[in-house]
Design goal:
Elements lengths: L7 E4 L5 E4 L4 E3 L9 E12 L8 E4 L3 E5 L3 E6 L5 E7 L2 E5 L5 E4 L4 E5 L3 E5 L15 E7 H12 L2 E4 L8 E6 L5 H9 L4 E6 L2 E6 L1
Parallel strand pairs: 4-5, 14-17
Antiparallel strand pairs: 1-2, 2-4, 3-4, 4-7, 5-6, 6-9, 7-8, 8-11, 9-10, 11-12, 13-15, 16-17
Length: 209
């Protein structure tokens, strides 16, 4: 379990490396069997899977399964949020838990899943910085303030309150370096001239400027 405000990296027994983002739960065996490699994730993880064609690697998410042989990909599957799978290298198959819907992904593809929309494959849409969070940096490319708020809350272990409803669906592009405090990050956001803020203890209030 990874608490808010932290990140963890793990080296699994088969040589696979996993980075886990804040507020994630991850379970894995001390040693994999010779036929199967299966792990479970709730939250966000970036995987560099050791290649072994005789022993497939499966990541079980709350609503999806990911099957791979050896590859690099990001899986984001927090409860009550859409699930996103982004492939950086190799090939993976993403399926719903009942196996009724499946998609084979190529590099830079993304799969999006919600209960209402089902499994949606988006070809060649991934950003090159899909794994930037593993270093502590935060990069937002044309994201709504609502989407950004959830990420910032996990990164800094704060609560974000958007006080003006018209701000919720506004889009932003920005980069917060890993060494920035929450106050410094908000100052950068303020420089867009669209947002002002105040911080009280561990709550950040955002206002329309």
């Amino acid at each position: 379990m990874v608490p808010k405000g932290q990140r963890v990296s793990l080296l699994l027994s088969d040589g696979t490396t996993v980075w886990l983002n804040a507020e994630s739960r991850f379970s894995y065996p001390a040693k994999f069997s010779e036929k199967y490699r299966t792990v479970t994730l709730e939250g966000e993880g970036y995987f560099e899977v050791a290649h072994n064609p005789k022993c497939p690697f499966t990541v079980k998410l709350p609503m999806l399964n990911i099957r791979v042989l050896g590859t690099k990909f990001n899986a984001k599957a927090y409860l009550d949020e859409p699930s996103w799978i982004t492939l950086k290298e190799g090939s993976v198959e993403v399926s719903t838990l009942d196996d009724r819907s499946k998609e084979r992904m190529s590099p830079n593809d993304q799969v999006y899943y919600t209960v209402s929309d089902g499994l949606v494959l988006i070809r060649s849409s991934a950003q090159a910085n899909v794994d930037s969070w593993t270093t502590g940096d935060l990069r937002f490319d044309n994201k709504t303030l609502k989407e950004m708020a959830k990420v910032i809350e996990r990164r800094y272990d704060v609560k974000i309150r958007i006080m003006d409803s018209s701000l919720v669906e506004e889009y932003f592009t920005c980069h917060f370096r890993k060494d920035l405090t929450i106050a410094q990050a908000m100052e950068l956001l303020k420089e867009t001239r669209r947002v002002d803020y105040r911080i009280e203890k561990k709550t950040v209030y955002l206002y329309k400027k």
